[in-house]
Write a structure and sequence with these properties.
The structure holds two protein chains of two kinds.
Chain A (H helix, E strand, L loop, with lengths): L13 H8 L5 E4 L9 H9 L5 E4 L2 E2 L1 H8 L3 E6 L1 E2 L9 H8 L4 E4 L2 H13 L3 E4 L6 H4 L19 E4 L8 E6 L5 E10 L4 E2 L7 H7 L2 E10 L1 H4 L15 E4 L17 H11 L2 H13 L4 H8 L1 H6 L16
Parallel strand pairs in A: 1-2, 1-10, 2-4, 3-5, 4-6, 10-12, 12-13
Antiparallel strand pairs in A: 7-9, 8-9, 10-11
Chain B lengths: L5 H10 L7 E4 L3 H13 L4 E3 L4 E2 L21 E2 L2 H8 L6 E6 L2 E2 L5 E2 L2 E3 L4 E4 L6 H7 L2 E6 L24 H5 L6 E6 L2 E5 L6 E6 L5 H6 L11 E2 L5 H11 L7
Parallel strand pairs in B: 1-2, 1-5, 5-10, 10-11, 13-14
Antiparallel strand pairs in B: 3-4, 6-7, 8-9, 11-12, 12-13
Helix pairs in contact in B: 1-2, 2-7
The chains are: A alpha/beta, B alpha/beta.
């Protein structure tokens, strides 16, 4: 018995969680949004374990997306947006991979991707919306027809049809549901009972988690049952949705975790510089991902000074006056 | 007259469209600046919100992405994407979205996806994000553009976000009952759309900018008969922008 008997079977190391649940060819949904709450420790571990041919499904993503694509782990992508704020208006390795024809990709919008996860979480095969009518998102498909025959890939990108209820000319768009193999996400708290609490914005993390076959959650802290159940209005996921829990402080660095730490402008600027150049990027991966054995070792490289600079004011949720240029 | 930058003029020109009671959707960059400026200067009772789910944050520091933790503090509600888009398209709300784009056509349709062929593009951009969604669902869209011929084009390389589609009532016939392009705010002036044809026309040129310069930098014919000179920023507007909205000069 470990410290937390209720989640003993779920509490894993990064190596175990990735090794057990993520395979070559897995369809993976990543939590967070651009510069916030990217499950970076998991992304780095996926890279270290040399997982290939990932089919990523996401709305707007930043650093984890770019690392996974840059390291050659991703062969397919369904995405609404690849960007990292002012540090990468378009994610750099994402941009290069598409321009070089290295990955198969298909564009959706944020709302559409969120609705697709939502439909998957509800167990319905598709969901209607008005969003996207008339756009090239509908008119131009990214995936080749043979991919569409595979399990977990929609047989069509969209269907435009009439509202079946009013008999008038009233078009709607039907979006195919998503049920990824694995959802990976980073939260502030997991209770010792397995309850997940995300503070600040939740984006589409809950829909992603509930649509996936397997859910891996990394967290800043494991907190007492008495704490997480004292104020359940604040909780995000009940324990039974979660298959693996890994405690990884600073597990989203260099992206932000509300009330814990801000995004790290120094690291993101470093990344921006190296990502533009293939050789420099390889050196970066060797140094920051392959060259460290654990997230702890990675954090030692980031250094206490940098971690102190991005430490969030726990009331405001971000690092006040941080030099973000 | 005080000296000012393009971004300052653009933020103010767009901010002037916002009225008390409007629900303002902000994207990244100048759009963030304009939304914050609108609330601080023109419409204190407007509500700024973000597609990520942050509604009415206090914005004590300017966010540099829509998922910035700075949009999670002082909000009336922190939610998620589905909730945010339910607000964008809500029948009871007047929602105005600020967007940016790589290309715009004469009907205010936008491209934020690729230049060149979709499958093997010359330049890949970030993609729709929530732009396609707000263009479909909001009451109106104001777009920020650098005014260049290669950006104001006859035909988009990719139509990410629908404006007035093919003009006239074609947007409504698509199945989009409300919304459309309100204005395109550029570094040279403000473009609006004809009430029935929905074609872009020049509404305002900034002080020191000629109508000819705007015509030269637009890749399609544009009606200039209604153009007037825009009011320059007042010293007070500039003070608020510089001292309260973006004192760290992250965007300005």
């Amino acid at each position: 018995m470990g410290m937390y008997p209720e989640i003993d079977d779920k509490l894993l190391s990064l190596e175990e969680a990735v090794g057990r649940f993520i395979k070559n060819g897995s369809q993976i949904a990543i939590g967070g949004f651009t510069v916030t709450r990217n499950p970076m420790a998991l992304a780095y571990e996926i890279v270290r374990q040399g997982i290939k041919d990932i089919h990523l499904v996401c709305h707007s993503h930043g650093q984890a997306l770019d690392i996974l694509i840059g390291a050659g782990c991703v062969s397919r992508l369904e995405i609404a947006y690849g960007g990292n704020g002012r540090y990468a208006p378009t994610c750099i390795r994402f941009k290069k991979a598409i321009q070089r024809g290295e990955i198969q990709f298909e564009d959706y919008s944020n709302y559409q991707m969120s609705l697709r996860f939502f439909a998957g979480s509800l167990g319905i095969p598709f969901i209607p919306t008005k969003s996207g009518l008339g756009s090239d998102l509908i008119d131009i498909e990214g995936f080749l027809p043979e991919i569409r025959k595979e399990e977990k890939v929609a047989s069509k990108k969209y269907v435009v049809t009439q509202n079946p209820f009013n008999g008038e000319d009233d078009k709607v768009l039907l979006l195919p549901a998503l049920n990824p193999d694995v959802a990976i996400m980073h939260a502030q708290y997991v209770g010792e009972d397995g309850t997940v609490r995300i503070k600040g914005l939740t984006f589409a993390d809950m829909e992603q988690a509930k649509s996936a076959d397997v859910v891996i959650v990394t967290c800043e802290e494991i907190v007492p049952r008495s704490f997480i159940r004292l104020d359940p209005d604040q909780n995000s996921l009940p324990p039974f949705f979660v298959d693996a829990i890994v405690k990884v402080p600073y597990g989203a660095h260099p992206t932000a975790v509300y009330t814990y730490y801000d995004y790290d402008p120094k690291h993101l600027n470093l990344y921006k510089k190296v990502a533009e150049d293939d050789k420099a990027f390889k050196v970066y991966l060797d140094e920051w991902v392959y060259g460290v054995r654990s997230h702890q070792e990675y954090l030692e490289k980031v250094g206490n000074t940098a971690l102190f600079q991005i430490k969030a004011n726990p009331i405001l949720g971000y690092a006040v006056g941080l030099d973000r240029k | 007259m005080a000296a000012y930058t393009d971004n300052e003029m653009m933020a103010l020109a767009a901010g002037r469209f916002i009225r008390n009671g409007d629900i303002v959707f902000a994207g990244t960059g100048v759009s963030m600046l304009a939304a914050t400026a609108a609330k601080r200067i023109y419409a204190p009772k407007a509500v700024v919100f973000f597609e990520t789910g942050g509604i009415d944050p206090s914005l004590e520091e300017i966010p540099m992405a829509v998922a910035d933790p700075r949009i999670m503090y002082g909000t009336c509600l922190n939610s998620g994407l589905i909730e945010a888009f339910s607000i964008v398209g809500h029948r009871k709300l007047h929602t105005i979205a600020f967007l940016g784009a790589a290309q715009v056509d004469k009907y205010g349709n936008l491209n934020t996806t690729v230049i060149g062929d979709y499958h093997k593009p010359k330049t890949r951009f970030s993609g729709s994000g929530g732009a396609c969604d707000v263009a479909s669902l909001a009451s109106g869209v104001i777009t920020f553009m650098q005014h260049q011929k290669r950006r104001f084009v006859e035909k988009l390389d990719y139509l990410t976000s629908v404006g007035w589609y093919k003009g006239g009532d074609s947007r409504r016939r698509l199945g989009l009952p409300r919304g459309g392009a309100l204005a395109v705010v550029t570094n040279l002036g403000v473009m609006k759309f004809h009430e029935t044809t929905r074609e872009m026309y020049l509404a305002e040129y900034y002080p020191g900018i000629t109508v000819d310069k705007i015509v030269e930098n637009t890749g399609f014919l544009v009606d200039t008969s209604r153009a007037v000179e825009a009011a320059p920023p007042t010293p007070e507007e500039l003070r608020i922008l510089r001292e309260e909205v973006d004192p760290q000069k992250l965007i300005l």
